[in-house]
Amino acid sequence: MKRELEAKYNSETFEARWQKYWDENKTYGYKKGLKREENFVVDTPPPTVSGSLHVGHVFSYVQTDVQARFQRQIGKNVMYPMGFDDNGLPTERRAQNKYGITCDVNLPYDPNFEAKERNVKDLVPVSRRNFTESCAKMTIEDEEVFKELWKKVGLSVDWDISYQTIDKNSIAISQYSFLDLKDKGYVYSKEAPTIWDVTFKSAIAQAELEDREVDGAFHDIKFKVEEGGEFVLATTRPELLAAIIAIVAHPDDERYQHLFGKHAIAPLYDIKIPIVASEHAEKDKGTGIMMVCTFGDSADLAWWKASNLPIRLMVGRDGRVIPLPMPTEKGTNNYARLLGKTLKQAKKEAVEMLKEEGALIGEPKPIKHAVKFYEKGDLPVEFVTSRQWYVNILDHKEAFIEQGRKIKWHPDHMRLRYEHWVDGLNYDWCISRQRFFGVPFPVWYKLDENCEPDFENPIFATKEMLPVDPMSVPAPGFEENMRGKPNGFIGDCDVMDTWATSSLTPQIATGWFKDQDNHERNFPFDLRPQSHEIIRTWAFYTIVKAYFHEKEIPWKSVGISGWILDPDRKKMSKSKGNVVTPMHLLEKYSSDGVRYWASRARLGVDTAFEERIMEAGKKLAMKIFNASKFVFMQVGDMKKLDDSLVTNEVDKAFLGYLSSVIAQSTKSFNDFDYAGALNAIEQAFWRFCDNYIELVKT
User: Are 385 and 313 in contact (CB under 8 A)?
Assistant: First the structure.
């Protein structure tokens, strides 16, 4: 067979030809039915379908692809799926902006509604079903763009194993997971104080919080003591004074020990509250004495749980002040000035009232401090009382740490980040979201004669009903015409946290409980590639689900990629507006050039965005092409190439060196050190070109 290459290297032509060949021949297809030891299985991160991909995505996905290609080279049957994470808040927000619509759950379904791009100021209300169908339409369009880009990059994905986190199969598996956790006693429903995002008007989980430094101020407020005397308390949240339930100071703080056991009278509202010792009070913060409100922060929540005091809730789900009884007419009149206001407005009004009463000492003292935000929200989170579904994780922290230690972390120090997160958990996992485009809870509630729902005895779907939407399918044993009627039923209108489904990516890819044989042949997976900022969410929740469902680890190894840094050494992210889209880079430097840049970075290490490295990668690909042409000129029409044909001592010496390179690079790949493998192989190639080829020419 004569080996020939084109006269000139053209990356665009070559890449298109090979992509077509791979597609037509299903080169990267996974073969079902083989033994577990013959397979290598990847838990591919499903990218969030909320706009365009950026170069950071290409960076981390190429690193996974390099590992998958190596496993094929050593004879493994590689299962390399691709999913799309398309449910949740980002998708809703994009659909709302693109189509000019908003969801109204009280509207009936309109079969004639068609989602079209609209440039309108006033959003058009549509039914929940119309809204979710519009979201689905948009994500399908986005996913095709994503798929073409991944093909351009050269990912060796098996596109026959692809999924959406909101497709029927994923919904069924996510709902099955919920029912299985319920049967095993890990899930419960409870009305309790919940971390709440007022921007999206939804409950959120601890893992979705982030600290942001914001401007604030300490306000020194004078409190009277019922038994005589007074003290000054510094707070950054005077607007919550009406929600006060206690005053606390550290038990060792001599300044306030004489007050313990007495009662303070809150200014403005005449609320009588106990003064108690508490070790969570910080002696060097503010004036060292602090108020406990329901709820200013997580410390307030923890203190309230340990007390027998009632809740004084003054913040509604929209972030505005709601009615709350006061003990005196003065308190009632003052509180009326806050009703209906946002918390920012309420703070301003409360400060004015404190000045009027003479209870504010001096002017507020400006500070900068860290405040908890929902990672996608615009305003600080609050705590409101609501009924939500929870997964009990606090009782199993030691088991989760032990499961994490059974997994090989690359780099190893990322395991400590995982353990620190588990150690610091303060809340069970809230999996309810008050949104629309997500996996519905397979739950209904019976109504009494007054149409009050019986939350204590929910009606659960059967396995055979899945996937099911309780807002459009009647509860078992009821007809649709009994929905919302006395002695009838209602469906649970909440949807699941997107992580409740994303934590099941191994189960979704293998067809858990539907194709159980395939699942058992491949679970646990071999590799989970992901970034380090979602160890607390994606990695943790996946470990939780695998343990609760099957007492297993989800994967044998996890590879943690670093971030891409912009020229100012800041992380590239859509929220910061400093991302670079990859298509023009792929066209300018070729896929191989961009892949070369990504493959030079080591796991867990942040990497600078450098086009000069991509340029070097493109030139390297061209050099490989030219060197290959020279080799083919030498071997000509030879049909067989083996060691017996090598007789020259120089040739033998180079083959010996090549064997050591193969051993070194193989070890690097097995250690998930693809950058080390690339370095060894590249050095060998340049030695081949600079020394061996020149010797052959002479």
Answer: yes
The two three-digit tokens of residue 584, written as one number: 């023009």
Of 354, 139, 81, give the one whose Cα is nearest residue 237: 354
Cβ atoms of 30 and 559 closer than 8 Å = no
- The CA distance from 392 to 438, in Å, is 21
User: Across 327-437, where does the E strand assignment appear?
Assistant: 365-374, 382-391, 408-410, 429-430, 432-433
Largest interatomic CA distance in the chain: 106
Name residues whose C-beta falls within 8 Å of residue 436's C-beta, 6 or more positions apart in sequence.
92, 103, 105, 128, 131, 132, 135, 495
Q: Which amino acid is at 284?
A: D
Structure token digits, residue 40: 């290598």
- pTM equals 0.87
**Percent of the residues in the chain that have a pLDDT greater than 90, as a whole number:** 71
Contact 627, 636 (CB under 8 A): no
pLDDT tens-digit series, residues 160-197: 999 999 999 999 999 999 999 999 999 999 998 899 99
CA dihedral 304, 419, 549, 467 (to 10 degrees): 70
The neighbour count for residue 92, using CB atoms within 10 Å, is: 22
Which three-class secondary structure state does DSSP give residue 492?
A: coil
Token code pair at residue 175 = 């709902």
**Phi and psi torsions of 406, nearest 5°:** -80, -10
- Cα-trace Rg, the chain: 31
Q: Are strands 82-84 and 77-79 parallel, antiparallel or unpaired?
A: unpaired
Report the distance separating Cα 228 and Cα 482, nearest Å.
62
Of the candidates 382, 440, 400, which has an alpha carbon nearest to the alpha carbon of residue 203? 382
Distance between CA atoms of residues 118 and 502, nearest Å: 31
In tens, the pLDDT along 200-227 reads: 889 988 888 999 999 999 999 999 999 9
